[in-house]
Write a structure and sequence with these properties.
mainly alpha, two-stranded parallel sheet, 71% helix
Length: 222
């Protein structure tokens, strides 16, 4: 398990943690910025295609097969993906409201991160497809299969923790998005063993985030 996680997520985790601690010291100056560019999205897509190819070969040699990841498709599962997004959003909003009343949750903390998108649809769509497949196959599909003899609660917690760590670079506000996402996705997979809705929900969530950014930009908010 260590080899697969290190190969697939070692670099993203290292980069995310490094950027988190680097940016944390600059929150007061509101200089926590991460930018999406075409080159950046192409680089992510190529990197993840290469890593996925290597992992497929490695796992095939270890007698893994595609069916082990429970990749099934039906239009019903597309509907499930939308329900997962709704459940995640409800949980995210509830957790955000609960923590927003705490003393340490200041406006500076909430607005410390600025996101800029300078991309085209040609880099966005391939990245959404590849990245969704990449993350969910590893953080949920592979992890649950590899730890199938371990307590479901523990596997869910490990999955959530890994997902959050490699998203740290997006700032503290993502705790209210990533943790609910990890919880809803992991609970669903633990119960139903279907990976496809998670991949679809992941891609759609990122697409909706981009469309909202464009909408806010046109309204002069961003």
């Amino acid at each position: 398990m260590g080899v697969v996680l290190l190969l697939s997520l070692g670099l993203p985790i290292y980069d995310s943690v490094q950027r988190f601690f680097q940016f944390s010291s600059t929150v007061s100056s509101k200089s926590w910025l991460y930018r999406h560019t075409d080159i950046g999205l192409y680089a992510i897509t190529i990197y993840e295609v290469i890593i996925l190819s290597v992992l497929v070969l490695f796992l095939f040699i270890r007698n893994w097969r595609l069916k082990d990841l429970n990749l099934h498709f039906s239009f019903q599962l597309v509907g499930v993906a939308f329900l997962l997004i709704i459940a995640r959003n409800i949980l995210s909003n509830l957790s955000y409201k609960a923590f927003s009343i705490l003393p340490f949750f200041t406006p500076e903390l909430e607005k410390a991160v600025t996101v800029k998108w300078s991309i085209t649809i040609y880099s966005l769509i391939p990245m959404l497809v590849v990245n969704s497949l990449f993350e969910e196959s590893i953080v949920v599909g592979y992890l649950f299969k590899r730890l199938e003899k371990v307590s479901g609660v523990l596997v869910i917690l490990i999955s959530i923790l890994i997902r959050q760590v490699y998203h740290l670079y997006q700032g503290p506000i993502t705790f209210f998005v990533i943790i609910p996402t990890g919880l809803v996705f992991a609970l669903y997979y633990w119960k139903y063993q279907h990976l496809t809705p998670l991949i679809i929900a992941h891609g759609l969530s990122n697409l909706f985030t981009y469309l909202r950014y464009i909408y806010d930009l046109n309204r002069g908010i961003s």
